[in-house]
Amino acid sequence: MDAFVARKPIFDTGNRVIGYELFHREDEANQEPWLIGTSFQSEDGGDSGILGLAGGKAAFVELPKASLLSDIPTALDPKGVVIQLQEDIASDYEVISACRDLGSKGFRFAMDDFSLHERHEPLLRLAEVVKVDVLASNPEEKAAAAEKLGAFR
Q1: Nearest-angstrom CA–CA distance, 61 and 20
Q2: In whole angstroms, what is the distance from residue 82 CA to residue 58 CA?
Q3: Is 0.85 surpassed by the pTM of this model?
Q4: Residues 19-66: tens digit of each pLDDT
Q5: Do the Cβ atoms of 107 and 101 come closer than 8 Å?
Q6: By the 8 A CB rule, do 40 and 69 touch?
Q7: H helices of the chain, where?
């Protein structure tokens, strides 16, 4: 099966690339990119394909709640993969418990499409990376996000 793959760099506050968010689509007709998560693995079933795409940087992969709660994350390398949590994932007991368990195994977490909502606070305490779309934010929103996130250092 052919797949089209792309990666989008993720920068730190010093404008250095810290990793890549990975996307793919199945064919040329499908113009909507999918985040690479559990649907893209190497032929041996592992994550070597994912890590290779990230070129030695962290590979940011999105795992929806159902995947997060399954055994799927254990097939990934916690040293090279950052589990990306979408803004709409529930901060419920199941998710927090699964993240704590995976964190104890060395996994790191990123919050994607961050917005200032109290419901995110339990996950923010577990996140190593918080992605803020600086191009879609005005200076006041950026300052508010920086102030809010400073409390979690």
Answers
A1: 9
A2: 6
A3: no
A4: 998 876 655 555 544 444 444 444 444 445 677 788 889 999 888 888
A5: no
A6: no
A7: 48-53, 65-68, 93-104, 121-124, 139-150
